[in-house]
Amino acid sequence: MAASVMSNGTLVFSAPDKPGALRVADRACETLRQVCGLREPVFVRNLGYLAALAGEDPFADFGAPAITERCISFFDIDAATHVELPLESKRKDCLVFRLGDGVALSITREINGKAGYPTPLLEKTLNVPVTTRGWATLLRVLDKHWQEP
User: Fold this and answer.
1) How far is CA 44 from the centre of its chain?
2) Are residues 101 and 131 in the same domain?
3) Would you say residue 111 lies in a domain?
4) Is the dihedral of CA 39, 101, 86, 80 positive or negative?
5) How do residues 91-101 score in pLDDT, each as one tens digit?
6) DSSP label of 112
7) Does any domain span residue 101?
8) 105 CB-contact burial (10 Å; exposed 0-12 / middle 13-18 / buried 19+)
9) Which CA distances in Å does 123 have to 77, 94, 142, 149?
10) Domain that holds residue 77
11) Per residue, what are the HEC states of 1-33?
12) Residues 63, 31: one domain?
């Protein structure tokens, strides 16, 4: 089973195990390259892992009026993450407060009418491709597709 989530490239699919999930993702990437030339990085994460992360309520310390958006970013799980946290953008419109296991959690703020975004900050810092989703998107994915075992 596979299901597209919104139109942001998020896809939920079933696989028997992690190696199987990675094979599915690799085949999909190869097909997209051959058919339409798309060359985008793909990051595979287990819904159970993401559900546990959501269950920690990692944004609880950040009050709603002070932030524009809560974000979760994904990158290669093997990327070096020896970064001193918190990591903040020069404009102070993005603050990464958690980083590891191929996932970063951040908040954005609006400064002079423009909200920050973690992807460029993380790509520059980690020197790897990164993709970001709003935390609300992750919660919608979990609400629709996660069933505790």
Assistant:
1) 10
2) yes
3) yes
4) negative
5) 999 999 999 99
6) T
7) yes
8) buried
9) 14, 13, 26, 35
10) 47-145
11) CEEEECCCCEEEECCCCHHHHHHHHHHHHHHHH
12) no
